[in-house]
Structures are given as structure tokens and as C-alpha cells.
Amino acid sequence: EKARIWGDTPRELARIAVNHLRQRDPDRLDILEIGCGYGRDTAYMSDQLDARILSTDPSQVAIGMAQATCHASNVSFRCCGFAETSGTYDAVVASNVYHVLDTVERRQLGQTVAERLRPGGLLFLNTLSVADPQH
């Protein structure tokens, strides 16, 4: 099995997103997670919120690891890039993705987020983590 190099606890952005989204009080939230990695934030958000979550990552290895550890019925995993997503969501969560994109991809991410967020939707975005062992 591949190493879980970033640990098992959720990132700070996932905790912040959960705290903000708990205050929204809709019947049920729809969340798009871009760059879910091996699913540690997905598992946390699905446990903490009444939400349907689509978690995406371009790595089949990462998606496989996420599927092996997160079996929540409110979560779907998809191996794809962010531009290949569809639908609209109450929130988009993209943790530690932006800094690995080039200029064109960053614009494309902005366009994709604008298309995916429902009116009043929230974007939760952070960039480089100083603890990231790869970047």
C-alpha cells in the first residue's frame, strides 16, 4: 500500500470549511472536492456534515486509496481533472492544488469554480503547505 505521507488527520482547510458550512443550515449540502488525494478530508467532511460529496483527483492511485478507506454512502470518488467535472455545488474545496498549476491551469480552475458554484456558494481554497514533502 502507498504511504499516507500527509498523515490521517484532516487539513486545516477542511476544518474551516466544515465550521463555515455547519452555519449554512440547508436541507443538504452538495460539495465538490478538487484534489482529494487519498481522502482524509473527504472522510472528515462526510462525517461532520449532512452533505453529498464528489471528491476528485487526477491520480488513480490516490482515488483507489480514498475508496479503500472511505466507504460513506454520501461520498462519490472520481478520477479526473477539475475541468472534467460537471454539476453545481454549494461549496468547492480545493486544498493544496493551486500552487502546482501553471498560469493557464489556474485560470481554468477559476473558470471551473465559477461554473460549478451555485449562487451564494463558497470556495474554500488554500495553496502551498510548508509541510508538503513533495513541493
Keywords:
135 residues, alpha/beta, five-stranded parallel β-sheet, 4 helices, 5 strands, globular
SSE order and pairing:
Elements: H1 12-22, E1 29-34, H2 40-48, E2 51-57, H3 60-69, E3 75-79, E4 89-95, H4 103-116, E5 117-126
Parallel strand pairs: 1-2, 1-4, 2-3, 4-5
Helix pairs in contact: 1-2
Protein architecture, described:
With 135 residues, the chain is α/β, with parallel strands linked by helices. It contains four helices and five strands, in the order H-E-H-E-H-E-E-H-E. It has a five-stranded parallel β-sheet. Strand 4 (89-95), helix 4 and strand 5 form a beta-alpha-beta unit. Helix 1 runs parallel beside helix 2. The chain is globular, with a radius of gyration of 14 Å. The two termini are 22 Å apart. The mean pLDDT is 89.
Low-pLDDT residue spans: none
Q: Find the structural class using helix and strand composition.
A: alpha/beta
Q: Sketch the topology as an H/E string, one letter per element.
A: HEHEHEEHE
How is the quaternary structure best described? single chain
Question: Rough shape?
Answer: globular
Strands, total number: 5
Could you estimate the helical fraction of the residues in percent?
25-40%
User: How much of the polypeptide forms β-strand, as a percent range?
Assistant: 25-35%
How far is the N terminus from the C terminus?
Answer: 22 Å
Roughly how many Å is the radius of gyration?
14 Å
The averaged pLDDT comes out at: 89
Biggest sheet features: 5 strands, parallel
Output the number of helix runs.
Answer: 4
Widest sheet: strand ordering: 3-2-1-4-5
